Amino acid sequence: MKKGIIFIVIIIIIGIIAFVPGVKDFLKNQFFPIATIENAVHINEEDYDVDLKGINAPSTNLKNFKNKAVFLNFWGTWCPPCRKEWPSIQKLYDTRKDNVDFVLIAMNDKEEDVRKFLKENNYTVPVYIAQSPISEKILPKVFPTTFLLDKTGRILIKEDATKDWDSETVHQFIDNIIK
């Protein structure tokens, strides 16, 4: 009797995985994250075209970072979670600035507030303020939002929350994308 029930439950689970839309892809992405990378969204030429006013770096355009690995972060001095993750971003920058380009874009902020925040905390990560519209593909819905882009413009990581960016996992991920 018990074996029959177990058999029926297993058949039902297999049926759900095989025939319910989305379940198979969800499980594949959970257990085989490389599939997520292969299906990653790409940033195209138009998405990169954002004029950036440098706060502690020369002004530039995001398209100058095309064909490079990029740590792209949207944040604000007014955002407590953004401020919380800054120390780990600074540590990651200090150790990885030769391997990855860092572009932190202050959103909904006054230039003087950004300058004051950077100076008070001795932060040296390059910070910009966007001077032209940002593509919907990368425009954040929440703050902080961070993207790790590979050299082809694939979004490999999109984090919509505070994260410890100086973790061993992040360092290993960067090692893998810069090879």
Automatic annotation (TrEMBL):
<keyword id="KW-0472">Membrane</keyword>
<keyword id="KW-0201">Cytochrome c-type biogenesis</keyword>
<feature type="domain" description="Thioredoxin">
    <location>
        <begin position="26"/>
        <end position="179"/>
    </location>
</feature>
<dbReference type="Pfam" id="PF08534">
    <property type="entry name" value="Redoxin"/>
</dbReference>
<dbReference type="GO" id="GO:0017004">
    <property type="term" value="P:cytochrome complex assembly"/>
</dbReference>
<keyword id="KW-0676">Redox-active center</keyword>
<keyword id="KW-0812">Transmembrane</keyword>
<feature type="transmembrane region" description="Helical">
    <location>
        <begin position="6"/>
        <end position="23"/>
    </location>
</feature>
<dbReference type="InterPro" id="IPR036249">
    <property type="entry name" value="Thioredoxin-like_sf"/>
</dbReference>
<dbReference type="InterPro" id="IPR013740">
    <property type="entry name" value="Redoxin"/>
</dbReference>
<dbReference type="InterPro" id="IPR017937">
    <property type="entry name" value="Thioredoxin_CS"/>
</dbReference>
<dbReference type="InterPro" id="IPR013766">
    <property type="entry name" value="Thioredoxin_domain"/>
</dbReference>
<keyword id="KW-1133">Transmembrane helix</keyword>
<protein>
    <submittedName>
        <fullName>TlpA family protein disulfide reductase</fullName>
    </submittedName>
</protein>
<dbReference type="GO" id="GO:0016491">
    <property type="term" value="F:oxidoreductase activity"/>
</dbReference>
<dbReference type="GO" id="GO:0030313">
    <property type="term" value="C:cell envelope"/>
</dbReference>
<dbReference type="InterPro" id="IPR050553">
    <property type="entry name" value="Thioredoxin_ResA/DsbE_sf"/>
</dbReference>
